[in-house]
Amino acid sequence: MSLMALREQLNGLVNSMFLEGLLDDQFEQLQMLQDESSPGFIAELITLFCGDSERILAELTKLLDQAVVDYQKVDAFVHQLKGSSSSVGAQHVKLACVQFRQFCEEHNKEGLKGIYFFRCLRALNVVKHEYYLLRGKFDTMLQLEQRIQAYESKQQI
């Protein structure tokens, strides 16, 4: 595949992610920061975001599996994930976190394991779904960027 075809494929993927609402203009702002002096900037951000997200999702799963759930801790982790999602422009993940936090706040008011607990579990599953959908597309994006960089390196020799 030619360099131009790889770039077109990458641009098509990113454009589709914007059209689907997976990414917002924050990601576009980050793309503008990547230049020849920092060609791996976006890849590094994505890698950090995915690592942090995986850790947070594992913590949330553990917290909600406990007999007595500490909703303040749950809320703190969801808030952290919402912030990092917002920072990279992961719009669907951010919106799912907003919903999750609302259920946690409602549960804190209720105080018992009832309907809001199950809504929190469902909200966690929605966040996971949105995150893994995004991560799959990010993985493809990173693979394409690696192929483009390899192609460009060969051309410079």
UniProtKB/TrEMBL annotation:
SUPFAM superfamilies: Histidine-containing phosphotransfer domain, HPT domain. GO terms for biological process: cytokinin-activated signaling pathway; phosphorelay signal transduction system; positive regulation of cytokinin-activated signaling pathway. The lineage of its organism: Eukaryota, Viridiplantae, Streptophyta, Embryophyta, Tracheophyta. This is Histidine-containing phosphotransfer protein. One of its GO terms (cellular component) is nucleus. CDD domains: HPT. It comes from Musa acuminata subsp. malaccensis. It is found in: Cytoplasm, Cytosol; Nucleus. PROSITE patterns: HPT. Keywords: Cytokinin signaling pathway, Cytoplasm, Nucleus, Phosphoprotein, Two-component regulatory system. Functions as a two-component phosphorelay mediators between cytokinin sensor histidine kinases and response regulators (B-type ARRs). Plays an important role in propagating cytokinin signal transduction through the multistep His-to-Asp phosphorelay. Functions as a positive regulator of the cytokinin signaling pathway. May play a regulatory role in salt and drought tolerance during plant development. The modification Phosphohistidine is found at H79. Histidine-containing phosphotransfer domain (HPt) contains an active histidine that mediates the phosphotransfer. GO terms for molecular function: histidine phosphotransfer kinase activity; protein histidine kinase binding. Residues 38-151 form the HPt domain. Its main location: cytoplasm. InterPro entries: AHP1-5/YPD1 (IPR045871), HPT_dom_sf (IPR036641), Sig_transdc_His_kin_Hpt_dom (IPR008207).
